[in-house]
Amino acid sequence: MKFNIALLAGDGIGPEVINEAVKVSDAIAKKFNHEITWTPALTGACAIDAVGVPYPDETHEICMAADAVLFGAIGHPKYDNNPSAPVRPEQGLLLMRKKLGLFANVRPTFTFPSLIDNSPLKRERIEGTDLVFLRELTGGIYFGEKGRRDDGETAFDNCVYTRVEVQRLAKKGFELAMTRSKKLCCVDKANVLETSRLWRETVQAMEKDYPEVEVSYEFVDAVAMRLVQWPNSYDVLITENLFGDILTDEASVISGSMGLMPSASVGEHTSLYEPIHGSYPQATGLNIANPLATVLSAAMMFEDAFGLKAEADAIRAVVNKSLEQGIVTEDLVAKGTKAYSTSEVGDWLVDNL
Amino acid sequence: MKFNIALLAGDGIGPEVINEAVKVSDAIAKKFNHEITWTPALTGACAIDAVGVPYPDETHEICMAADAVLFGAIGHPKYDNNPSAPVRPEQGLLLMRKKLGLFANVRPTFTFPSLIDNSPLKRERIEGTDLVFLRELTGGIYFGEKGRRDDGETAFDNCVYTRVEVQRLAKKGFELAMTRSKKLCCVDKANVLETSRLWRETVQAMEKDYPEVEVSYEFVDAVAMRLVQWPNSYDVLITENLFGDILTDEASVISGSMGLMPSASVGEHTSLYEPIHGSYPQATGLNIANPLATVLSAAMMFEDAFGLKAEADAIRAVVNKSLEQGIVTEDLVAKGTKAYSTSEVGDWLVDNL
Ligand SMILES: CC(C)[C@H](C(=O)O)[C@@H](O)C(=O)O
Ligand SMILES: CC(C)[C@H](C(=O)O)[C@@H](O)C(=O)O
C-alpha cells in the first residue's frame, strides 16, 4: 500500500521524537512492502516565527490531502507567561482540530509491567489498568462565544453542545466499548449543567442500539476521585472537551508511563496521531527526549488509520522489547544503568524490528 | 461566649455525623465556658419531602440569624438517576451558597501519620502533604445563564466572572498564604478561556500588595497531574468554581483520609462548616458512618468563625488520639481489630477531651 502522511513536527522536542517515529515507520513499511511519502509542514511556535500564524493555510492543505497526520508537540516558553498574547501556538492546535473536524480525541491509559513501579500509585491500585478516554474535541467551552463586557471588568465563556455533536462522539464510544469489555462510562456534571443534561439524555437514548454495552453515568468530580482510587475499574469513558482535558491528563500520570502514552484524534476529514507529552522545551536539541510515545502513536496510525494491525503489533512488540531490555532514555533508566539517547533508542528499534 | 449555630443535618448519614459533632462541640463549650444554642433547620431531600423545596425560606432565615452554620450532607438515591428532575437536593445547596454569599470554599487536604498507608499513593509521594484549596463558590458556570435552543437540540451554559468576584476570592488566598508558607498557586485555563485570562490578570495585579507571597500560575490540566504526582509541592491554591469542584475532590482522595476532611464556606453573611464526604445513603441509620470529618469541621468553626484556637486544637488533639488508639469506625479499622460505631466514637471523644 501507499500512504501520504503529513508530518507536523512542531516545537521543542517535537522534531526529535518525530524523527525516530519516521525511522521506525519507514522500517516497518519496508518490511511489509508499503510506501510512505512524508510531507512536512509547519505548526506551532515555529510556524508563528516563520509565517506569523500557528496553523498556516498551507499546513492545513497538506493535512487535508494526507491519509493521516503525525504530530509532535507544540509550545514555546516565550508564550508561557502571557496567555493574552495576540498569537499563541495553542490557537493553532485549536484551529487545526476545528478545521480538520477532529471531533474525537482517543486517549488510552495502560501500564507496562516493567514500568509499573514508576507509578505514583501503589502497585495494587494501578495493576491491570487499561482504559480509554474519548474526549470531544471540537465543541464545548473551547469554541463557544467568549469575550468581555463592562469595559473589560466582566469576562464570559459560553459552553455549547448540540445533540448531533454528542451523538457522533457517543457513537464512537459505544463502538469502541463493543470491541473491548462492553463497559461505557459517560462523564458529566448533569446535576449542575444543562449541556451535561443534554449529554446524558442523548447517551441514554442511544443505549437501546447497543443492548450489550453496560452504560454508567458518573459526575466529573466523582471520576476525578475514582481515577486515583481504582483506575482499573474503568474501561471506555466518554466526555466533553474541558472535562476531557482535565481527566485525560490526570489519567495519564497514574500509569507512571506518561512519556509513553500515544493518542489519536479522529473525525471528518483525516486523523491525527501524537504523543500526549508536551514540547518539553528544556530538553530541546539535547537528544534525550523519550521517543516511545511518538513511536506508539505511529503504531496507532498503522492500525486505526490504515487498518494494518500486524504492522502496529510489530511496532508495539519492539517497543516492549526495548523496555524489557532497558534500551531507554534517561527518564526511564534504572538506577546505575546507562541511558540511551533519543536517536539510539530509535536506531535500536529499527534494528530489532 | 455565647453562640447561636444553625444545624443543617441534611440527608443520609448527615444526622448521625452531625449528632456526634454536636456532642463534641457541647463538651468543648462546657469545658471552656461557652454556651451554644443549636437551631436545627431542614435542607436537602428531607426538606423537599417535608415542604417541597430543598432550601426553605425558614432555613435561610435561621442561617442568616446564626453565628455559623454546621452542615451534614445532602442527597438521596431517588434523585440520582434523574438529573432533570424539577426539584433536586443539589439545587438547595447552590441556592444556599448563593443566598448566604458563601463565595469561598476552603478545602484543606492533609495527612494523618497513622493513616498514611490508606492513601492510594505511595508513602513517599503523599508524606508531608498539607495543602488548601480556595474554591470560588458563587460564580462561574454554576450560576451563569443556561438553557436550550433549537427545540431542545442545543444546550448552553454560560461561564461568567467579574473582576470583583476574582479579587475577593484571591484576597482570601493571599491572606491565607501569608499565614502559611507564602506560596500561592492560581489555577486556570488562561490559554483557552477568557474568564481564566481575567482571573490571571486580576491576580497578577494583586501581587504587588503581597510582595512576600510567591505566586505561580498553572493550567488546570497540569494541576490535575501534579496533584497525583507531587501533592506535597502545593500549599495554597485558588481557583474558579468548576475547576475547584473537580480538583478538590481529586485532592481529597490522595491523602487516604477522605472520610476525615473538613471544609468551610465563608463569605458575606455567615460561614458554613461541613465534612466533604457525601450523604452515603447505603449507611443511613446503621450507626457506622465516620463522624470525624464533621467533628473536624466543628473544630474549623471554633477557630475560624469564633476565633477560638485553643478549643479547636483541643478537638483536633482528641481526634488524633482516637486515630492513634484505633477508636475508629469500620472504614478505618485495621485488619483483625474491632470497629466502633458512630456514636461510640463520639462518646469516646467526649470522654477523652
Ligand atoms: C494546549 C491546550 C489548548 C490543549 C487543550 O486544552 O486542549 C492541551 O491541554 C491538550 O489537552 O491538548
Ligand atoms: C452536589 C454538587 C452540586 C456540588 C458541587 O458541584 O458544587 C458538590 O459536588 C460539591 O462539590 O459540593
TrEMBL record, chains A, B:
Cofactor: how bound: Binds 1 Mg(2+) or Mn(2+) ion per subunit.
Record's catalysed reaction(s): (2R,3S)-3-isopropylmalate + NAD(+) = 4-methyl-2-oxopentanoate + CO2 + NADH
The Isopropylmalate dehydrogenase-like domain, residue ranges: 4-349
Gene Ontology terms for molecular function: 3-isopropylmalate dehydrogenase activity
Residues bound to Mg(2+): 221, 245, 249
Residues that bind substrate: 97, 107, 135, 221
Compartments where located: Cytoplasm
Annotated site residue numbers, Important for catalysis: 142, 189
UniProt cross-references to InterPro entries, sorted A to Z: IsoCit/isopropylmalate_DH_CS (IPR019818), IsoPropMal-DH-like_dom (IPR024084), Isopropylmalate_DH (IPR004429)
Keyword entries, A-Z: Amino-acid biosynthesis, Branched-chain amino acid biosynthesis, Cytoplasm, Leucine biosynthesis, Magnesium, Manganese, Metal-binding, NAD, Oxidoreductase
EC number: 1.1.1.85
Purpose of the protein: Catalyzes the oxidation of 3-carboxy-2-hydroxy-4-methylpentanoate (3-isopropylmalate) to 3-carboxy-4-methyl-2-oxopentanoate. The product decarboxylates to 4-methyl-2 oxopentanoate.
Database matches in HAMAP family: LeuB_type1 (MF_01033)
Assembly: Homodimer.
Record's protein name: 3-isopropylmalate dehydrogenase
Source species of the chain: Flavobacterium granuli
